[in-house]
Amino acid sequence: MVNRKELNPDKSPEAAFGARLRSSREARNWTQDDLAARMEYSGRHISAIETGRKPPTRRFSLSVDAAFGLEGTSDTFERAWGELRRGSLLEGFPEYLTQESRAAEIRLFEVGLIPGPLQTREYAQALADSAVQRGVITAEQADERVSLLMERQAALVRPLPPMVIVVLDESCIRRPIGGSKVMGAQLDQLSEFAKQPNTVLQIAPFGLGERRPFDRLVNLLTLHDRSVVSYVESQTHGHLERELTSVLPLVRAYHQLQAESLSQAISVAMINEVRKGTPR
Hints:
Elements: H1 13-27, H2 32-39, H3 43-50, H4 58-68, H5 77-87, H6 93-100, E1 105-110, H7 121-133, H8 139-154, E2 163-169, H9 171-174, H10 179-194, E3 199-204, E4 218-222, E5 228-233, E6 238-241, H11 244-260, H12 264-276
């Protein structure tokens, strides 16, 4: 055991997961290879998780629960993984997702990409796969990212669904993602979205120029108590805001954006025109 690495569970959520994995294993007097054999993983993989060199996945966590007999309990490794996964999202976003799943009205603006609630699985997968190719995430993390998005979309399907208002910068429908087949299906999905009784879809055309008030993602939620929450993010940071003095300017700017953007009918016509140039 001369190479045994001391673990600091307070270092990060991943470190806490790894430390718990080691202590649970050692409480049973199992070696890493003993546990690996029960999980169909390698001892090296177990070591990497315990020391934080590799992040756990849902599949791995489920295998741990099966090996330790924790399935169906309230303190599973799968649950710890879920908390870890949400904790790895941009600051403010996990709480935003909770509020979004309960909101009475959702207003979204995005530049360059179709926002998550409107993405097809294939479009989302293409983005996740690209992140894998760039070395940003692993293939398993890519699958988890898409799974989380599908869960987010499912949370919006309710007996009394929220009103969903979406303004897309024109770049969202003209930037090809995933090839012609994937992008074509995504454009079809936007047209179908616009037909729903609880949705509004508008395009902010390139011609708005400097009159476009936002340059990055902006989400606004109206909750059932009529309070409004905003969420904005950059490439590396997210910020959830509840203070009225900070949220109201975004609400005002969003209304201005809607007034300047194309009507839904003209927006759908533009989407269909772009779709004509995408082979079926």
